[in-house]
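User: Second chain of the day. Same drill as before.
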Amino acid sequence: MRILCFIDILGSGGAQRQLVNLAVGFKKRGCDVSFLTYHADDFYLPILQDYGINVELIEQDSYIKRLFLCRCFIRKGRFDVVISFLEAPSFISEVAGFPFHKWKIIVGERSANPRIMKSLKRKFFRVFHLFANYVVSNSFSNRTLVKKINPFLSDRRNIVIYNAYDLQTLDSTKFKIREKEDGKFHIVIAARHQRLKNLKNLALAISLLDDSLKKRLLIEWYGRQENGCFEENVQIIEELGLNEIVRFYPPTLKIYEKMVAAEAVGLFSLMKDFRTQFAKRCVWVNQF
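Assistant: Same format as last time:
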């Protein structure tokens, strides 16, 4: 079976990590797997190269020309399945299958972002899900959003599959854990800098803690820092005087080692009453 994995960039995002994991899994099962991207970034390239997965880059600044070139590549590729993650690649893969296609089109919805409901552009992209064979969300909240935007999409084609992880790779016994000398409670966050990841409310929640708890807390954030949101996050941390508590690092392929060595892994995406709940839980658990 020939499978094409299609995404915008091989940068250090969660969607990229998931699609790379899928590609490796398919390759291990004997499938002929290749990648298509249209922005240059080689963060995950070493993993794909280790498994002999070819990566095709179509770099084109013009949106129209990019759509046309990617469509031609897909239609001429003789693939059995095209799997695309994120809005723009999914839209292109769906357009590539119009007006007819022999291959299966599977698109992945990776984030239950409530802003989708307020964006005409994002709603427009999801109308084209009607041309996909399957729309796979990684949560039921995400699936519900898709259904609200595109009520004509049948439940049979609008499904949920949770994010996959290689448990053998995540086996903690494979990592050497060094004892910490600072006596702090370490929380590791792996996420690119965007408002959806909710650092602002996390920082405000930390500021509500007692000073005794603050002194015992250390948050290490690993993620892409190339956009304006990173500068905003740095400014928020400085304004609240949390420089010694929250530290930012660039993304790393050794993130599992960082997680295993920490006391906790943080997932602080947007949620209701986040600041109050975080502060209450920290005081109630009292384990820092």
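The longest strand covers residues 32-37.

User: Great, on to the next one.
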